[in-house]
Structures are given as C-alpha cells and as structure tokens.
Amino acid sequence: MEPLRKGALVARLAAGRADMGRVMALRAACFPRASGVEADAQDDLSAHVMVEGEGRLLGYFRVMLFGWGAGLTQGYAARFYDVGPLSGYARPIAEMGRFCLAPGGVHPDVLRLAWGAMTRLVDEGQAGLLVGCTSFRGAGWEAHRAGLALLAEGHLGPPAHRPGRKAAEVVDFPRLAGPVTDRRAALAALPPLLRTYLGMGGWVSDHAVVDRELDTLHVFTCVEVDRVPAARTASLRAVAGDVSTVDRSG
Q: What is the model's pTM?
C-alpha cells in the first residue's frame, strides 16, 4: 500500500524497528496483558498500518492476507476458533487485528483514514472476506448480555461457514443471552468496531471466547466483501478515493 494522506494525517505501512517500537507501545497501552508481552507469531505475517498526525501515532491495525481459506490456520483467529469450515474458500482472505486508537480520543478523520487504508488493502489483495476477532472489554459475559442478545437474534453467520469451538473457555451466548428488550441500548452496547462490521453486513460466530489474559470476550467476525450493501461500499470507496497519495519527492 502506498502512503495515504488526508489533511495533516498520514496512513502508511510500518517500516523498521523504530516504527514497530511505536506500534508495540500503542498496542501495549490498548491491549494490556498480564505477561507484558504484546508481540506474537502473527506479527511477522502481517502488514502493519500506522495512522500518524503531528508526529504522534494516532491509530493502528495489522492485516494478514491469505491466498485462500486454508491459510487461515496461520492467523490469529485460528488460535481460538476452528476455522476449518472456511478452509475451502477459494479467494484471498484478509484478517484484520489489533485495531486501536491513541488513548484520550482522536479526530474522526483518523478513523476515516484507517478505513480508507483498509479498503485499499482489501481491494489491492482482491480479498473476498475480511475476518477477525472483535472484543468486548471485560471477560464476564453477563455485562454484555444486551449486545450478545442482539448478535444472537440477527447476526449469526451461515451454519456451514461458522467456525467451530476450539478455545478452552467459551460462552454459548445464543442460549444464554435471552431476548432483545431494548434494541437501541443493545446496539450501543456493542464495541464500535463490531458495529462497523455489522453495518457492512458482517456476521459473527455462534459462541464467544473468553480471553482471561486480556480480560476480554470476543467473537469471530466475518464480512463478505461482495455482500457489503451498495451504499456502504460506495461510502468506503469514496473515503479511499478521497485520500491522496503522499508526495515522496520531498
């Protein structure tokens, strides 16, 4: 991906140890672990996208691109989910992870630029699926009952494609969460990233995974690129098209 710019903001791929040191510092702040070790085996397989402004790292995500479904076994989600049901998928798959923003809040254009960069990466890689693990803060599922009920009611993936159970501790939220009693409150209870995926027509696994080390509860999330609503596709591509390639001559 070529570096992209929107106003004073730049999105580019991390290059070298200095960039990765800044990336890891942001990740450690956003994903605190008891072990204190944030790096993992997937980092060497990933493209690392940094969104910067005025000398600060404001946003970040990483992307792994697999040539077809069988490659998903190398990804992060495969640690927690049996991704075998997607192994026969014949197009490239992009796995997005560690999406995070600088603590204290950032300008909305940081998110716009991040999604513009993500859209370009998906298009350049000709990916048919965008997958990942989307986390609720706090490992106790009861605190997320409203959001989980909404997922169970209308956002479970096709049975033939849902990943199977693999993690040691899972939550059968379709059975436990109960009915949706307040749709607006349930939508507000979802993590912002998950709301974005659902707005693109995304679906989730039929169980959640408890991650005690990160104190999170996460669901496998999948967006089928060809099924993103036309209006949302146009909006995403407009964002990707609004950003300008950085002039490297100077």
A: 0.92
